[in-house]
Amino acid sequence: MRAGWDGGAPATRLGGVSIDDDIAKPATGSDFARLSRRITEAGLMARRPGYYTARVAIVAGLYLGGIAAFFALGDSWAQLGLAAFFAVLFGQVALLSHDLAHRQVFRTRRPAEIAGMLAGNLGVGMSYGWWMDKHTRHHANPNHEDLDPDVDPDILVWSQKQAKASKGLPRFIGRWQAFLFFPLLTLEGLNLHFSGVRAVVKGNLRHRGLEAALLCTHFAAYLAVLFLVLPPEKALLFLIVHQGLWGVYMGSIFAPNHKGMPILTGDDRPDFLRKQVLTSRNVLGGPVVDVALGGLNYQIEHHLFPSMPSPHLRRAQPIVRDYCAEIGVPYCETGLIDSYAQALRSLHHAGAPIREG
């Protein structure tokens, strides 16, 4: 692990370096400009139409094949295995929607939006417009307590400051949130559905009508097929297994990226490169980890270059890591299991004021 940190330590420390020290430095936009030139000269911002054509074909083929297998199995307990298969597949569809939202696949907005809504809304029942708005705000201010929606204390508390001010459900859960984190992820799939529906109802989406129609089509088709093919008890169990495991998978993809990394507060405004690098963590691993996490295990490179095609992130990593070493910016990378351990230690540390109170 390079420039790692103890997830149980105060969230303003990273590898023995205070993020406040970096914030106090004058903005050095030229640091990122020099890195960007190296990345561009390496050809890593070039589109990969062949890769994405193959990826879409594989994911779509598995999706259609899974549906065919569901009908072929009929009233069978083996359907629970298929529920687990679809949990992973839904995660892969969501990751594809993520790449579409970042313009990694198409250069222009319209085809990206259409493909993103087909994958997100129709494919998995997750609002593309709602998620894109939320994720864009996250990328602009990662791990900022006031500006990043991913660290809002709606269920969990991410800092001791939030813990001290918590009330209701976050305070009740926050006491032992590190132990409850993975069990709570079983509800994340339902939360993604609910958040999308709520965004449609509130009417603040760019393509509200289309998103609503696609979401309704997904939910109607999903439930109709489920309860027409399976008896009620098996259909309900399939739904629980599928949605629960999908939530765990989605949470397991995103939890290692920023949880347990420094949290910015108030007027903390480091320059772009430091803001993205100091609040992000890479997860080491081979091709299996790359596929399972959709390339988001290279979170530092992804945050620095969001429109970089995901297969190029692995090649960008040594360039970014070496450059950070040159300019003295801590670069955090660790294994998958340790990344979860760091996130959980940080959650436990954040909830300390509630336990002590």
Automatic annotation (TrEMBL):
Output the lineage of the source organism.
Answer: Bacteria, Bacillati, Actinomycetota, Actinomycetes, Pseudonocardiales
Q: Which residues cross the membrane?
A: 52-74, 80-100, 112-131, 178-200, 212-230
The molecule here is called Acyl-CoA desaturase
The family database entries (InterPro entries) matched by this protein are listed as: FA_desaturase_dom, Fatty_acid_desaturase
Q: Which UniProt keywords apply?
A: Membrane, Transmembrane, Transmembrane helix
Say yes or no: keyword Ribosomal protein present.
no
Start and end residues of each Fatty acid desaturase domain: 76-334
